[in-house]
Amino acid sequence: MSEKADIALIGLAVMGQNIILNMNDHGYVVCAYNRTTEKVDQFLANEAKGTKVIGAHSIKEMCDKLKKPRRVMLLVKAGKPVDDFVDQILPFLEKGDIIIDGGNSEYQDTDRRCKSLKEKGILFVGSGVSGGEEGARYGPSLMPGGNPEAWPHIKDIFQSIAAKVGSEPCCDWVGESGSGHFVKMVHNGIEYGDMQLICEAYHLMKDVVGLDNQQMSDVLAQWNKGELDSFLIEITSNILKYKDADGSYLVEKIRDSAGQKGTGKWTAISALDYGIPVTLIGESVFARCLSALKDERVFASKELPGPGKIQFDGDVKEFVQHISKALYASKIVSYAQGFMLLREAAKVYGWNLNYGGIALMWRGGCIIRSVFLGNIKAAFDKNSQLSNLLLDDFFKSAMKECQTSWRKVVAKAVEVGIPTPCFSTALAFYDGFRSERLPANLIQAQRDYFGAHTYELLENPGKYIHTNWTGCGGNVSSTTYEV
Questions:
Q1: In this structure, is residue 322 part of a structural domain?
Q2: pTM summary value
Q3: Which residues are recorded as binding NADP(+) (predicted)?
């Protein structure tokens, strides 16, 4: 059989279909396959009608239709389905062929697959794909990592279909093993944080200041012309003013119980595993968990006292401006924490990550795309060894400009009983990070008192000692460990 297709794609849900059509638009011949083969015929007869897309009704037929080295991309559910398809594809591949997992897989699974398939001579790539349905169709953000030998064979396809900022594609090689999916995981965690921050701003404008939906929509539209310019601000402005058939605002009818697919949780767990204080993403995950306790919250609202209704008597326009600055400062902290986690994972796994390049990959096409990411790229371009975004001159200046407003917003929220977990934890992190001394000396003394866990002295770091605090204990210490 003659070789026809440049690449095959398995998984014909909406993301898979749209990426196939995107590849077709850029001149690539794609072979489409789905476990339920009727879907292949439906796709060819409808969405892909009139294109160069071809179909296959078996894994063998799909592989037979591919140019060498064969390139097979999976867009299927993470976990066992990926392993099952890899096992089905392997008998029809040769040394040097490439499998690409474009789903939301856990980075540890990608690391495992890279190693096991390398032993078989197959090049495995785990690629983050962000941008939703529209991004997949017209230009997603792509974050490929894995076996570096695969990159020259997929680079042109990936960078052709990716979103562009100017002439730069929002796609480049991330690094080895599971790094592509790790970067995507952190992206999704930051997405959780951005969404929660916007929700807290909405809550404050609605229940403290008393703005109606059209007014809030107008405020966000104005924010979207400045430093907060982003996809999520844009769509939130549109959501807030959208009216149902009866003329009422639709968003106010939606049950306040948020769902989640787990990638934010993965980010928070990774942060705990590596000992990095990614507090804002963690709080955004817990905020969704708390929202899911809807029935319990309804009951508690009738039982638990709060500060009561406090009439806002300040300058509305001024306080809305304070909220925008609190949002911006908190957003900076969230991204600073995310890049701290990327840096630590790179150290643990030996990845050579280009942090400015990652910011560029997120600059367009993806859900967290924003003008703000250009400032992050500039920071890392200026200093590739920058240890923390907060130490860059641009962001230091931004925090100086925003912090008075930020503190006023958090204080007002506490006063009136409006929960702002992400605004508050971002400020707490900022104050902790800029503190030369924290009260952890007392924690170390407590640990040594009850568990003989030892401590270091300021004048002699690196030497662990134990004190018999009561005179009744012994002088034997426990094994030193980090917690």
A1: yes
A2: 0.93
A3: 11-16, 34-36, 76-78, 104
CB 73 within 8 A of CB 123: no
d(CA 275, CA 259) in angstroms, rounded, equals 27
- The answer to whether 178 and 186 are in contact (CB under 8 A) is no
Q: Which residues are annotated as a binding site?
A: 11-16, 34-36, 76-78, 104, 130-132, 187-188, 192, 261, 288, 447, 453
**Which domain does 63 fall in, by range?**
7-173
Catalytic-role residue among 184, 265, 331, 412: 184
Q: Where are the alpha helices (DSSP H) in 205-315?
A: 213-223, 231-241, 263-274, 279-291, 294-303
Residue 424 and residue 444 in one domain: no
CATH number of the domain where residue 464 is located: 1.20.5.320
User: Is 184 labeled as catalytic in the residue annotation?
Assistant: yes
* Cα 67 from Cα 435, distance rounded (Å): 59
What is each CA distance from 423 to 133, 418, 459, in whole angstroms? 30, 11, 36
Same domain (yes/no): 27, 117: yes
Q: Is residue 2 part of a domain?
A: no
340 and 227, same domain (yes or no): yes
Which of 328, 435, 346, 423 is CA-nearest to residue 387? 346
Provide block-wise average pLDDT over 10 residues at a time, the chain (483 residues). 83 97 98 96 97 97 97 96 98 98 96 97 97 94 97 98 94 96 96 97 96 98 97 97 97 93 89 98 96 97 90 94 98 98 96 94 92 94 96 98 98 96 98 98 96 95 94 66 49
Binding residue numbers for NADP(+): 11-16, 34-36, 76-78, 104
Catalytic residue among 65, 106, 176, 191: 191
- In the chain, the number of structural domains is 3
